Amino acid sequence: MPHMRAIVLDAPGPPDALRLRDIPRPAPRPGWVLLRVEAFGLNRSELHTRLGLAGPDLTFPRVLGIEAAGRIEAAPGTDLPEGSKAVAMVGGMGRSFDGGYAEYTLVPAACVVPVTTDLDWARLGALPEVLQTAWGSLTVGIGLSGGDTLLIRGGTSSVGMMAAILARRMGATVLSTTRRPDRAEALHAIGVDHVVVDDGEVVDAVRRLVPAGVDGALELVGAPTLRDTLRACRPGGTTCFTGMLSNRWIVEQFYPIDFIPTGVRLTAYGGSAGNLPSTVLSDIASAIHRGEIDWPVEVYAMEDIARAHDDMEHNRVAAKQVVLTRAE
């Protein structure tokens, strides 16, 4: 039986609980896609899993990873061509079945999005889940239009940075928050119009820039800041709850009439591969390849997974973290 390298978590624990091992390579089966993984991005979801914060659908031992990029090795019972480039994301990856932290991953065809691009594997591997989340939040969650003003709460996260890039391409004015003033330059570099330093409350600073309130707000920090984010939004505007950078997603004692300002809409987004059109993925990947979009990544080897997770847990990197399964 052929084997592969994979990063396995036997039980929740510190970063070094993630172990690089040789395990059997998954065998193709109808309706599923065997992807030869070239790169995979790191996500807060996997940090939550490692910390023991995942839901009841998770069993151990488990290969983590809610996304991966590579080439289709086999796809029986589907119309996906072998050898073509594709990405895979969510749909149970790394939770109810083994995910992308491996040289090969076997996923349902519904998790796969084909892509046409010459973008290098590192930046492509850092793209699928971030792009799906940012795109879905702006389109499905907020309904952003050209000329709108958008507040991104958690702007230096990878989703926050991608949301800013997409919003600017859509013609919106972008305000992004960061707790660290030294990261303002990185936000301006990707097109953010106004950087707001987040000391726990940003509504006054946002209202000084946009007195009537923003048209849309993307909440990526989580429950602790949601009320303040809602207050920065105008009546008729929309706040979309998408992220939990704070590791807190439950709003205690939630009384909607008191919590949500009159006329402000509160939505949420938790999408899947089906929410990311292949054309959008290919377009953004190609724009990055052409240099139209600056998409910063921090690259690791599989042997460095513990350091990568420690960096993620302590917010040391102002870029999307990605692991290459093979040296480029």
Gist of the model:
With 328 residues, this protein is of the alpha/beta class.
Write the layout of secondary structure elements.
Elements: E1 3-9, E2 18-24, E3 32-41, H1 44-50, E4 62-63, E5 67-74, E6 85-89, E7 104-108, E8 112-114, H2 121-125, H3 128-142, E9 149-153, H4 158-169, E10 173-178, H5 184-189, E11 194-197, H6 203-209, E12 214-219, H7 223-231, E13 233-241, H8 256-259, E14 265-268, H9 278-289, E15 297-301, H10 305-313, E16 320-324
What would you say this structure looks like, in words?
By secondary structure, the protein is of the alpha/beta class. It has 2 domains: 3-127 and 295-324, Medium-chain alcohol dehydrogenases, catalytic domain (Quinone Oxidoreductase, Chain A, domain 1); 131-268, Quinone Oxidoreductase, Chain A, domain 1 (Alpha-Beta Complex), CATH 3.90.180.10. Helix content is 26%, strand content 28%. It is built from 10 helices and 16 strands. A hairpin with an 8-residue loop joins β1 (3-9) and β2 (18-24). α3 (128-142) crosses α4 (158-169). 48% of the residues are buried. The mean pLDDT is 95.
Helix content: 25-40%
* CATH third-level topology of the largest domain: Quinone Oxidoreductase, Chain A, domain 1
Structural Rg: 20 Å
Quaternary status of these chains?
single chain
CATH class of the largest domain: Alpha Beta
Work out the number of β strands.
16
List the secondary-structure elements in sequence, H or E. Answer: EEEHEEEEEHHEHEHEHEHEHEHEHE
Note the main sheet. 7 strands, mixed
